[in-house]
Amino acid sequence: MGRVCREVQDQVVGNCNNIQCTSFTNCNSIQCTSFTGCAWWNVPCHVARGVCVAAAVIARAACWVARAACDTAAALARAACWVARAACVVAAEVARTACIVAAALARAACEVVNFVLDVIGFIVEVILSIPIIGGIIRTILNWVTEIIWRIVGIFDFLASLAGIRPRKKMYFGVIVPPITPIASDADIQRQVDATVAFYDQTCNINMIFTGICHTDVSPPAAGLTVGCDAGGFFNDWLLTGSYFEFASATCKFTDSFRRIIGLGAEIIVFIVQNVTPANTNGCSFGSTHNWVVIEALPTDQAFVAAHEIGHACWLLHDGDPANLMNSTTPTANPTLTNLQIAVVRWSKHCVYI
User: Fold this and answer.
1) Interhelix angle 239-251/43-128, nearest 10 degrees
2) pTM for this structure?
3) Which of 69, 89, 219, 298 has the fewest CB atoms within 10 Å distance of its CB?
4) Please, what is the Cα angle at 265 between 187 and 273, to 5 degrees?
5) pLDDT tens for each residue of 36-54
6) How far apart are CA 213 and CA 219, in angstroms?
7) Which DSSP string do the residues of 88-131 spell out, in sequence order?
8) pLDDT tens, 236-282?
9) Which distant-in-sequence residues (6+ apart) come within 8 Å of 274 by Cβ?
10) Which of 310, 308, 274 has its CA nearest to residue 183?
11) Top-level CATH class of 129-351?
12) What gap in Å lies between CA 130 and CA 297, rounded to an integer?
């Protein structure tokens, strides 16, 4: 039974047993207490005494009749209350069952629709994983969807600038290639925890982590060393990009359709062995991809993944050493400016539903 049903039940019929007859409790106390000192010769007094006694008897009898009527009425009211309680319980159970069935049917329909859409998205992603032509189409598609959703969300951006920031959510997950040695799950989880805490506290964004997927898709050599430069950008159109796209499609199938339309697309953090140039431990090409790469070494700052996700949401580097987007990621307590927060919340990856 739902909470509302319980509250109504408690308020309306919760005190059935308290219905009692509390009137006419002293019927036997009705007595004639007057004319008790009549002299034997005082006939009027004795007559009055007789009338008084008769009236007391009648009143006492009427009291007992009223008492019986009161008890009967209380019993009937109590019975009616219990009938109403039973009806309430039955109605609540029927409503609860109907609600559960309706929710199950809606969930089933939703799952079927989403599965079909994700199958379509998967097929598209397989096509987009074709080297060169697939990579070029993928780049264009990602930028087009980014621009469209930025235009749609312009009022949300302005509201965020003004400090109006209702709770939003963003999905992100991790894919680890079948190569050893590479980052441990513990080191990856350190990056995940820092990302979740930072965006929650700074941007009022619920970062929903979809898990670590150890893919069976083997990467090309170039997919394990990613250049964070123009060469790395164009390399995404070749085998490297094919690997990232196909691994995303197979490892994160349930997000396939959203990655095609852009809205609410999961940001995928790929673990790689090396990011160049030297002293670089993560990379993102912004809206060109739905993924970023990090090394996730135990010696890396905990906020590397959060930093690269910021790039994926259009944030540029910032000169403030305490800012998350400084080229040297802060080791603790990073910050974002008001404008940066609004830009992140404006991203196609960041949604309300």
Assistant:
1) 150
2) 0.73
3) 298
4) 30
5) 777 777 777 778 777 787 7
6) 14
7) HHHHHHHHHHHHHHHHHHHHHHHHHHHHHHHHHHHHHHHHHTST
8) 899 988 999 999 999 999 999 999 999 999 999 999 999 999 888 99
9) 224, 225, 226, 295
10) 274
11) alpha beta
12) 31
Report the Cα 80 to chain-centroid distance in Å.
Answer: 42
The answer to whether the beta carbons of residues 346 and 156 sit under 8 Å apart is: yes
- Contact between 169 and 351 under an 8 Å Cβ cutoff? The reply is yes
Element (H, E) at 176: strand 168-176
Tokens representing residue 65 in the block: 């009749």
Distance CA 194, CA 330 (A): 12
Of 230, 233, 259, the closest CA to residue 246 belongs to: 259
Q: Which amino acid is at 152?
A: V
Q: Give the N- to C-terminal CA distance of the chain in Å, as an integer.
A: 28
> Where do the H-state alpha helices sit in the chain?
3-13, 43-128, 133-152, 154-161, 185-203, 230-235, 239-251, 256-261, 304-312, 338-346
Question: How far is residue 167's CA from residue 280's CA, in Å, rounded to a whole number?
Answer: 33
| Residue 175 φ/ψ, nearest 5 degrees | -120, 130
**Residue for token digits 């998967």?**
122
Using a CB cutoff of 8 Å and minimum separation of 24, what contacts does 73-78 make?
73/21, 74/19, 74/20, 74/21, 77/19, 78/16, 78/17, 78/19
Domain range list for the chain: 3-98, 129-351
